[in-house]
């Protein structure tokens, strides 16, 4: 019941603050004999790493992950895996102003009210740096999935920056890795680049984003009814990421505007089992996977740490203004892409293990 | 780790199928000495009850709740409360066609694939009838909240039916109980009524909806960072309701289109503590309540059980069509309103108890 | 985190008081397609049923179990199974004296101090009647084990009543069902009978007991290190039974007196894998089963409800004496035998499912 | 549901192997504003540290604990606390023989069968070194208890080594810290010393022990009925310690031999509330604390790693003999004393938080 853990059988607990000595994840319940080494995890951490281009925070962190336990001679042993990432670039002096003042739209005030103490340096526990731990854990999950179901592919990308959405007709999987925004629409990426440049340099502002994560090749049958639903756990996983304010499965909020006739994904019989005319359901019916693509979207709010002055109060209740200097992401949604992928990987693996535990293998053949 | 449970300290496990002898909820962790009787719970169940007007399913169920344990001489004892609702109107013969055929957009096919067995009568465990158990449990939660924080008020309402949204300038709390749709905009309610009439009688169709649930008076400080976030648990709670495809906190998906300057809820000092210029955050920062209104929205997809034929397959893999006769809700979102309220009540109480457990009382005074 | 639940994947929540309308168990996580009906469960409930002979309480309860959900056409569906047992013989007037007075050695006083309210009728939630729910749930577990590992056999028996222990050289499995005490030593059973007669009728007293539960045929490899150890979960399961004060695995407390040379179960290679020279370990090494018999013992204290006056106080703090009339078990350990078996079945099944979830099948072949 | 975690609200997850780079504990749910620093924790680790005298393993480990997160400016912040202990003296070459052979009475064989891989160096995850993590976590728990209930005192000691028990009439609290055995009976300590000398040097053997842990000053009312019982959680906590085979609360296994008349702790009214004539119950009735001393005992089996040859098999199934050279504890029970104390501290704190969460403060006044 740890409030810093998620997952049922594949269970991840993250720990650490932005400017403490280190942060990391304790990963329990991983199947044994999964080939894992630090290099494999580093691949995913490098996707999330700050300071890689002008569109993300200029904080320089190598985000080098160390495996302290649970892996022996290149394989998981089935015991807890401790992943540690040392903090190196902790220019704490940049944050002096937030010791006394609460940033509007930030967790500063609620942490203070609840706990009576907060590590104000870089946001402490509420910093987006915490998500590095998730990405490391997600790297473990990816390898474990690969060992069980090699066809599963998990890919995230941005579909909206501010008010600017991609054009779905220009969607190109191969574009995703070709720009700074994990954007599948090459034209949108160009437009976003100049927009974000202006926002950062001229407008001293930040902006939100929508990220979509797709898992292809997930077998039918994983998930469970009622509160252990696959969509419930995906919603929780994504909503737990810093700054996320909305989560959608398949058609998402737009499902409200559809009629039953339009929303039904009609079913046909294909050579390898059921096939569907469409995927409004996002690959989940009744909390259980259909075998179609799992499709999740989430909205990330704009960073509250901006150079434009905002009205606020101090700990002693005095009204004042705040400008957050620091080194912040103009669109933190960009770096949320690998985080969303990691959460998807953790949830999918967890439900594959749960399914195997309770059921063994799918029971109901069709045809 | 029960997949049919939710909550940390206030823990609800629901059980039962649509056409079995009964369904209910096992409620554990309720504080003692909370005044509770069946009448109090019945009040909320009656809001969700089917067959009350032409806009909901014509199934007639008294939904009378019995308290089998955990309440003694009109008060909770702190031990598990068993709530049972007998099924009475189980016209199983109506459902003959779905024994062999899978309804598109319904959990029929995934239950079958996973378990190799399903109680097809009325959707079995995947029926929306399961939500009666939640409403009963939510009634307990409401009374326990009242005993701890009498000012908390939890209210749900519909803000969208199909493509038709309410006009927020006409929002009137008092209207919510005055129409069949829990609609706070009287004009919208009139329009929805005729639209739904046409949809049901002439179009043989169904439609989705968006429900908003607001908790007013919740104290600052409840919730927790990272995976035990208040918004994470609210997202999970709402996504676990049948047919929900999207969940939003505060600004929700629209937060993506905002800039940091616009999204920041500026902070001022009021006579009783911090006050905010706006509530884009939906009352939650860093997973912890701010003391503002908690605002959650969720989208309910249209019922898949409609009178219009849809293409599907049988268990033996033969392609066919299906018309679902039964007695279904043309807009199941209507009856989701009290369910959303119940889930909000359960989550708020749970986090109040968690907060008291770890923290005692808020630690950080302001001013 | 329900405090009335146990198990990880196979999760049992019990509810109900001694003199309420009913009590029962919510069983979640059972594999689907396990053949189950009420008759199968009744078989085990009848072993625990009160009033069967003069050696147990004279309360007459049919303990008839109803299955309210989770079973369809004679098979489990994989959804929660609700088991309900109605209370019928609730002679509450017998208990008048305990409304104001606390029985020494009973939970009366601690329930009162903690909750400020208690259902005093028959001990309420703290009554040994709660164990009927466990036996019903254990019946489900037995059937699920049978479907996965048909060779597993779970048998409990009494090895000590008061100071009188069985003679291990006279141990006879076939005797266990032949006397009122589940005693494997026929001579001891005769002696116990006359001792208990005297104790009940002449001495107005009660006595403790030691029960041993053995699971034969459990495959090697179930369990897990550190806190999810098989022995940890067995200890918790047995200690959670009313009146239990000690739990032993294999050699148990006597292991303290052994040397390493004597305690080591030496390993040999048999035709079907490893074999052991002895079983001091009780079938568990490092929290994981060896494939030998699982051997658990627990001590049940004597009933505190006796006809001999004991000194106590009232709710208002007045010193007084109490005699508990009611209809109590002179040796409640007798009826704890089927309860211990049920707990063993639940733990073994739970760990079989956990093992299948994380590992699939045993990974390390020998020879 | 992590199998390497325990606790409900105060939740400890340990990680690490005997000869990996480090091991530690992730501690979640600690109340904020508890004064903690590494020195406080080191005090308890030093009690458990190997190589302090000839009676324990000669492995030299400083067991220096680092706090990597969750503590800021000398106080807990309410976020997860990461405690890391580096392994320094990893003379792996000593363990060469156990790569292929399984030590009888050790987890070697079951880890291998289950996982198909094991970190054989020093026992890997199954090494008693894991308990250093528990002692560090217990240090946090002690400080948190002190902040809530300053009168609580937790003390462990050995009451039996091999067949040699202490004489309870010579019990002296002040002796406990005066000898190498945490023995409250000075004469027994002298006898144990020479016995252990002979056992180690001449007999090449090891021996078991019984440890008792007492918590004084714990308020009445903590704990919960049925599966969240205080005694259930204590039993699980102690049984989860390496090599423990039996757990007793209060009278323990000896309760079986008592009659109801003798076992009842009679109740009187003292100046500050109820008082008891005796403490057969070990401070717990119905799973809830009475306010008397909590008394737990557990038996530790003798180390299986001894210099005397024992028969065993290899991974390939060949029969052979094994002598475990290494540097092992002749009586590992000695170092289990601070571990038992740590587990007691964690359980007591956890239940204090749970109690505050569900109940607030005790509800039922007496007198």
> Any idea what the shape of chain A is?
globular
Number of beta strands of chain A: 18
Oligomer: homotetramer
N- to C-terminal separation of chain A?
42 Å
The secondary structure category of chain A is alpha+beta
Low-pLDDT residue spans of chain A = none
Largest sheet of chain A: 5 strands, antiparallel
Order of helices and strands of chain A: EEEHEEEEHHEEHEHEHEEEEEEEH
> How much of the polypeptide of chain A forms β-strand, as a percent range?
15-25%
The percent of residues in helical segments of chain A reads 25-40%
SSE blueprint and pairings:
4 copies of one chain form a homotetramer.
Chain A: E1 5-6, E2 11-16, E3 22-28, H1 38-48, E4 65-69, E5 71-72, E6 75-76, E7 81-86, H2 108-115, H3 130-148, E8 153-161, E9 164-165, H4 186-201, E10 209-216, H5 230-239, E11 244-249, H6 260-263, E12 267-270, E13 273-276, E14 284-285, E15 288-289, E16 294-300, E17 310-313, E18 319-322, H7 333-358
Helix pairs in contact in A: 1-3, 1-7, 3-7, 5-7
């Amino acid at each position: 019941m740890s409030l810093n853990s998620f997952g049922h059988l594949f269970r991840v607990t993250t720990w650490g603050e932005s400017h403490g000595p280190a942060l990391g994840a304790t990963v329990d319940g991983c199947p044994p004999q999964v080939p894992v080494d630090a290099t494999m995890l580093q691949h995913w951490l490098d996707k999330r790493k700050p300071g890689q281009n002008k569109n993300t925070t200029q904080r320089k962190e190598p985000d080098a992950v160390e495996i302290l336990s649970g892996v022996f001679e290149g394989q998981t042993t089935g015991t807890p895996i401790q992943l540690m990432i040392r903090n190196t670039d902790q220019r704490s002096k940049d944050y002096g102003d937030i010791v006394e003042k609460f940033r509007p739209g930030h967790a500063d005030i609620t942490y203070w009210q609840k706990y009576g103490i907060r590590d104000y340096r870089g946001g402490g526990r509420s910093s987006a740096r915490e998500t590095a731990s998730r990405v490391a854990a997600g790297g473990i999950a990816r390898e474990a999935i690969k060992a069980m179901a090699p066809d599963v592919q998990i890919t995230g990308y941005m579909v909206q920056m501010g008010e600017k959405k991609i054009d779905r007709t220009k969607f190109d999987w191969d574009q995703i890795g070709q720009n700074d925004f994990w954007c599948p629409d090459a034209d949108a990426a160009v437009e976003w680049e100049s927009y974000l440049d202006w926002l950062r340099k001229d407008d001293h502002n930040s902006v939100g984003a929508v990220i979509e994560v797709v898992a292809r090749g997930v077998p039918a049958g994983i998930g469970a009814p009622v509160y252990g639903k696959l969509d419930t756990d995906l919603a929780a996983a994504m909503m737990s990421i810093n700054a996320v304010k909305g989560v959608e499965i398949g058609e998402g909020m737009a499902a409200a505007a559809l009629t039953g006739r339009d929303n039904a994904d009609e079913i046909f019989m294909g050579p390898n089992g059921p096939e569907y005319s469409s995927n409004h359901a996002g690959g989940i019916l009744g909390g259980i996977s259909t075998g179609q693509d799992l499709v999740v979207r989430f909205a990330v709010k704009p960073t509250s740490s901006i150079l434009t002055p905002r009205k606020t109060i101090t700990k002693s209740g005095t009204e004042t203004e705040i400008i957050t200097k620091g080194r912040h992401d103009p669109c933190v949604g960009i770096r949320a892409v690998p985080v969303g992928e990691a959460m998807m990987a953790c949830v999918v693996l967890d439900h594959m293990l749960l399914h195997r535990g309770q059921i063994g293998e799918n029971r109901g053949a069709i045809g």
